[in-house]
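[Automated response] Your request has been received and processed.

Submitted sequence:
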Amino acid sequence: MDPIKGYGFVFATSLCSLHFFTSGAFVRMSETLGYGQHVSMPFKDTLYFSLIAGMSIASLNLSLLTNSVGFYQISKLMIIPFVCFMEAFWMKRKFTLPIIASVLVVIAGVAIVTVTDMSVNPLGLAIAAVSVVSSGMQQMLCGVVQRKHNLTSNQLLSNTAPVQGTLLLFAGPFIDKLVSRQWILDYNFTVQGAQCLGLSCAVAVLVNISQFMCLGCFSAISFQVLGHAKTVLVLLLGWLYLNDSMSMRKLGGMMMAVAGMVGYGYFTSVQQRAATSKPEPPRYTRIPGMDQEQGQQKP
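Generated structure:
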């Protein structure tokens, strides 16, 4: 749905609503056919998770509107330090100095690759701060909620996707109007555009399922590191197959980021092995807005 090279569908928040409705319907259908068991979450937790997730999507889109692309990229990189703080302060996770150093190297490498300009204003700064907090919270809540209610990733998606879709359905047109200066009802639908929209929704099912699965298996910090690996891979494939330019600055930043990712993986596994040799009793963890729950933090 690229607005320049594709069919001009510039309504990103409304598109996310369709993605969540499609993902929720797919998972519910799979459960009905016997591929998984449906487990209902308390509505309070479902609504809380969905509000945080919806706020993340909306604020990221508004951040791109009010800030330069460079500052938008910087704000996305700030999700990692925020998650580190939350996991250390609220979830009592301990980080070794090599792990912290590896994370900083990843952030610096990705910043070198993606940040080309930066300007900031008070409104953009406030919206960026909301996007950092809500995005980090949403990623942590994926694992916390699954452990709290003993859910699989698909069961969490089955409960929350319809609510997220509904929230974005009502808020999306207004946010898209601010960002694109167009109402979604003014879009000229074509058969080819509708087919591309359907394909986008189908791909979103796979993306959402894999995202919830990763956040259930790994910590939010590990998920962020994996996400930046995707950024590096996209840039590399664009250079190899689409003839995108590759400057020494980009290449150096990519190598730096990859080195940080390798270091993070290695030092995290070392910490995990040390923790396994000296098992600790399960800790109670607490996240603002969620009831207290018991469970181990993922590596």
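Summary generated for your ticket: DSSP finds ten helices and two strands in the chain. Residues 292-297 have pLDDT under 50 and may be disordered.
If you did not submit this request, please reply to this message.
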